[in-house]
Amino acid sequence: MVLQNKNIVLGISGGIAAYKCAHLVRLFVKAGAHVKVVMTPSAKEFVTPGTLSVLSKNEVLIDFFDIRSNWNNHVQLAEWADLILIAPATANTMAKMAQGICDNLLCAVYLSARSKVYFAPAMDLDMYQHPSTKSNLETLKNNGNIIIPAESGELASGLSGEGRMAEPENIIKFIESDLLSALPLAGKQFLVNAGPTYEAIDPVRFIGNRSSGKTGIAIADELASQGAAVTLVLGPSAYSPKNKNVNLVRVESAQQMYEACTKVYDQCDVAILTAAVADYKPSTASDIKIKKKENEMSLELTKTNDILAELGRKKKKQILVGFALETNDTLDYASKKMVAKNLDMVVANTTSEKNPAFGADFNTVTIIDKHNNLVNFEFKSKQEIAVDVINHIKAHFLNIK
Ligand code: CTP
Questions:
Q1: Closest ligand 1 atom to 311 CA
Q2: pLDDT single digits (tens) 29-44
Q3: Given the DSSP bridges, would you call strands 7-12 and 160-164 parallel, antiparallel or unpaired?
């Protein structure tokens, strides 16, 4: 997800590992990135520009001038890039880049870089261990570049040892986790719950509500895109988070939601409870389908655990955020819930015919917090509300801009 829409210049230098670049380009494209390939002239001997052009859906650049004598603008290319990856980075190309030599297009792109530059070295084991290579790697690191360590294994020379280019999957993982670690919420653990709960009456019937879970899902997606580690405990909703980094725990009943939330609560920095948890459940659920008999039938109900109130009681360092859905006296009820459940912040919203809140894609909310802040937001999409809620938490509780 972190590579979605990223512009990547893949610089390929001339080593046998270049054949793996076809796969690498496919993985980048699959992750939603835009890829432009720049090759050194000798790299063409190991993988064809045609293959890389088809896979990247872009022209592959090799020389300063193309066959029509048009100049390939290395400055524009470097400006376009959100990141540059040199893979395989041969001993020769790394030596040139460490020294600032600029005798091919790829070297010129590197020297014009304004983005992060990653190197995935690949060479024979003795070359990798050579003091010159080591000192070039050190220089590249000191100049702010990021080295993706070579892996150990069989080498094209027949020798075995350290020097193989990291496997394409590992290169992608490395870059993704490096990009994630630079995001504003990196290192923060969040718990979010969302959706309705279903309380069984018998194997085919339940007590539920109309919550879609969309707000909580949008919050979880946004948190993950800002680098947070997120567990989303989701009731029976028709929707799912889009961000694959969200740790999704599917539950059905209030009791299951309670157990899943308490399991991760101790480790988390912030818990945002958006779920429309059933307040009551049938005192007993029948194992078999209940047959209709009398004209009237009554169900005995028992209160469920109030998950938010329970987390409020267990609170240590956590920042605890609740939602309050009301039909009337919204702010009054919401502030009382904040105090009663020991919350740091509450997001209040009103359900009415005009603004159904449940199931809709848009809503109007007000944020109230324990520092006496009260912020009214206009009618907007649940994705935008997610950003507002997260911004408020960052600014007022995490000291993050
Ligand atoms: N909540 C919860 N567990 C429950 C009921 C509610 O964790 N059993 C949480 C909701 O996720 C929400 C907050 O408490 O964050 C407020 O929920 P709401 O339904 O507005 O209020 P209730 O506390 O249930 O009170 P009431 O139904 O009387 O308004």
A1: 7
A2: 999 999 999 999 999 9
A3: unpaired
Chain segment 23-80, per-residue pLDDT in tens: 999 999 999 999 999 999 999 999 999 999 999 999 999 999 877 778 878 889 999 9
Q: What is the pLDDT of residue 71?
A: 84
Beta-strand relationship, 160-164 and 151-154: antiparallel
Q: What is the mean pLDDT of residues 184-206?
A: 98
> Contact at 8 Å (CB) between 345 and 368?
yes
What is the pTM (predicted TM-score) of this model? 0.84
Ligand 1 contact, 279 CB (< 6 A): yes
Domains of the chain: 7-181 (3.40.50.1950), 189-398 (3.40.50.10300)
Q: Are 3 and 172 in contact (CB under 8 A)?
A: yes
Ligand 1 centroid to 93 CA: how many Å?
Answer: 61
* Cβ of residue 258 lying under 6 Å from some atom of ligand 1: no
Non-local (6+) Cβ contacts of 400 within 8 A are: 184, 185, 394
Task: Measure 324 CA to ligand 1 centroid, in angstroms.
Answer: 7
Active site positions, annotated: 209
